Amino acid sequence: MATLFKNIKELIQVRDESVSFVAGTAMKTLPTIKNAYLVVENGKIADYGSMADCPTTSMEETVDATGKMVLPTWCDSHTHIVYAGNRESEFIDRIHGLSYEEIANRGGGILNSARTLQETSEEALYEQSKVRLEEIMQLGTGAVEIKSGYGLTVNSELKMLRVIKRLKDSYPIPVKASFLGAHALPSHYKGNTSKYLDLIVNEMVPKIAEAKLAEYIDIFCETGYFTVADTEKILEAGKRYGLIPKIHVNQFTAIGGVQAGVKYHALSVDHLEIMRDEDIEALKNTNTMPVALPSCSYFLSIPYTPARKMIDAGLPLALATDYNPGSTPSGNMNFVVSTACIKMKMTPEEAINAATINGAYAMGLEKEAGSITIGKQANLILTKPVNSIGFIPYAFGSNHIDSVYIKGKAINQ
Ligand SMILES: N=CN[C@@H](CCC(=O)O)C(=O)O
Ligand SMILES: [Zn+2]
């Protein structure tokens, strides 16, 4: 089965040679071909170029993209879309003046979601979560990472991870799983963190690794949650079982989580709203991708990751949604890209690099996703007619997507 996209106004993020990620000033360059064609064969990108060289052989399907652009689908490398219920009541509490921290200290927050999830059947959890996966695909996401972390017991963490596995087996986009048992301390372990960490290290990690339910290991390294020493303990256990770190650090305070991530060769360190100079230094010349989550900053009214300072220091940066019921009840990567430009002063080119190729790297998918490169999965966004690529983040509230193609097939409802 072959499909020809012809008369594409601009084909975006074209990389003849696959790159792992882009950093520093290279993020300003977004390679494109104007007036282009693209051929998809058997679900993969097979050919592309200038319309002057467009193949004349007939193909099963032809899409006339006159006035429209084509770009790789978004790569959302940080989500928590497997959850039960919602936390709308905490949203109202915050409107009335309570902080995220105050709500958590009253037993709300992550522990609230954990209670709901523990009472929800695996089937119901799958049904609720698949709605969110389908929603983000319609919004242009074509590869996603999903975390556990609302189970906080052996059975419920395994339940979450089995749901992630079922999503992965049931949907055509790449899905990566992260085990986040150390997301919050269950209340009955209060004052006894090491006992909960032992449960993670001695029971959860071995079971998860044996059942091959996760590629990555995560922890919320933050004041009031887990310390740097806790983080090292968990990452060490993950390492013994082949789980690669992708960790939550520097969301509210900088306590050395970035350095712990680098020490354990984390694939990514995520959040980074509070960054000291030494944290930026620690990330230089490493393979660890910093990941910013601007929708979380927006929703919680906390600082935005200092993207300008980080990119100007030569670092790469990826953008992701953090879709979860507490800090970011939104999985819209289009909004993330706009917000990165508007609030973090990233250029459209930088933001699109961060949301495609760098996002793919941050979940180990840089060989399959994130750019228009021959052999990669044909997961594509066909835009509505737009004048320039910058118009997409600029007109931030509008839907610029005409169609989303996964493995070359349109999925629009
Ligand atoms: N910060 C830790 N975890 C999630 C939020 C969890 C929640 O509030 O449910 C995050 O990335 O923002
Ligand atoms: Zn998160």
UniProtKB/TrEMBL annotation:
<feature type="binding site">
    <location>
        <position position="150"/>
    </location>
    <ligand>
        <name>N-formimidoyl-L-glutamate</name>
    </ligand>
</feature>
<keyword id="KW-0378">Hydrolase</keyword>
<comment type="similarity">
    <text>Belongs to the metallo-dependent hydrolases superfamily. HutI family.</text>
</comment>
<feature type="binding site">
    <location>
        <position position="248"/>
    </location>
    <ligand>
        <name>Fe(3+)</name>
    </ligand>
</feature>
<protein>
    <recommendedName>
        <fullName>Imidazolonepropionase</fullName>
        <ecNumber>3.5.2.7</ecNumber>
    </recommendedName>
</protein>
<dbReference type="InterPro" id="IPR011059">
    <property type="entry name" value="Metal-dep_hydrolase_composite"/>
</dbReference>
<feature type="binding site">
    <location>
        <position position="80"/>
    </location>
    <ligand>
        <name>Fe(3+)</name>
    </ligand>
</feature>
<feature type="binding site">
    <location>
        <position position="326"/>
    </location>
    <ligand>
        <name>N-formimidoyl-L-glutamate</name>
    </ligand>
</feature>
<feature type="domain" description="Amidohydrolase-related">
    <location>
        <begin position="232"/>
        <end position="410"/>
    </location>
</feature>
<feature type="binding site">
    <location>
        <position position="78"/>
    </location>
    <ligand>
        <name>Zn(2+)</name>
    </ligand>
</feature>
<feature type="binding site">
    <location>
        <position position="183"/>
    </location>
    <ligand>
        <name>4-imidazolone-5-propanoate</name>
    </ligand>
</feature>
<dbReference type="InterPro" id="IPR005920">
    <property type="entry name" value="HutI"/>
</dbReference>
<feature type="binding site">
    <location>
        <position position="251"/>
    </location>
    <ligand>
        <name>4-imidazolone-5-propanoate</name>
    </ligand>
</feature>
<dbReference type="InterPro" id="IPR006680">
    <property type="entry name" value="Amidohydro-rel"/>
</dbReference>
<feature type="binding site">
    <location>
        <position position="150"/>
    </location>
    <ligand>
        <name>4-imidazolone-5-propanoate</name>
    </ligand>
</feature>
<dbReference type="InterPro" id="IPR032466">
    <property type="entry name" value="Metal_Hydrolase"/>
</dbReference>
<feature type="binding site">
    <location>
        <position position="322"/>
    </location>
    <ligand>
        <name>Zn(2+)</name>
    </ligand>
</feature>
<feature type="binding site">
    <location>
        <position position="324"/>
    </location>
    <ligand>
        <name>N-formimidoyl-L-glutamate</name>
    </ligand>
</feature>
<feature type="binding site">
    <location>
        <position position="80"/>
    </location>
    <ligand>
        <name>Zn(2+)</name>
    </ligand>
</feature>
<keyword id="KW-0369">Histidine metabolism</keyword>
<dbReference type="GO" id="GO:0019557">
    <property type="term" value="P:L-histidine catabolic process to glutamate and formate"/>
</dbReference>
<dbReference type="GO" id="GO:0005506">
    <property type="term" value="F:iron ion binding"/>
</dbReference>
<dbReference type="Pfam" id="PF01979">
    <property type="entry name" value="Amidohydro_1"/>
</dbReference>
<comment type="function">
    <text>Catalyzes the hydrolytic cleavage of the carbon-nitrogen bond in imidazolone-5-propanoate to yield N-formimidoyl-L-glutamate. It is the third step in the universal histidine degradation pathway.</text>
</comment>
<feature type="binding site">
    <location>
        <position position="322"/>
    </location>
    <ligand>
        <name>Fe(3+)</name>
    </ligand>
</feature>
<keyword id="KW-0963">Cytoplasm</keyword>
<dbReference type="GO" id="GO:0005737">
    <property type="term" value="C:cytoplasm"/>
</dbReference>
<comment type="pathway">
    <text>Amino-acid degradation; L-histidine degradation into L-glutamate; N-formimidoyl-L-glutamate from L-histidine: step 3/3.</text>
</comment>
<dbReference type="GO" id="GO:0008270">
    <property type="term" value="F:zinc ion binding"/>
</dbReference>
<keyword id="KW-0408">Iron</keyword>
<feature type="binding site">
    <location>
        <position position="87"/>
    </location>
    <ligand>
        <name>4-imidazolone-5-propanoate</name>
    </ligand>
</feature>
<keyword id="KW-0862">Zinc</keyword>
<dbReference type="GO" id="GO:0019556">
    <property type="term" value="P:L-histidine catabolic process to glutamate and formamide"/>
</dbReference>
<feature type="binding site">
    <location>
        <position position="78"/>
    </location>
    <ligand>
        <name>Fe(3+)</name>
    </ligand>
</feature>
<dbReference type="GO" id="GO:0050480">
    <property type="term" value="F:imidazolonepropionase activity"/>
</dbReference>
<feature type="binding site">
    <location>
        <position position="248"/>
    </location>
    <ligand>
        <name>Zn(2+)</name>
    </ligand>
</feature>
<keyword id="KW-0479">Metal-binding</keyword>
<feature type="binding site">
    <location>
        <position position="327"/>
    </location>
    <ligand>
        <name>4-imidazolone-5-propanoate</name>
    </ligand>
</feature>
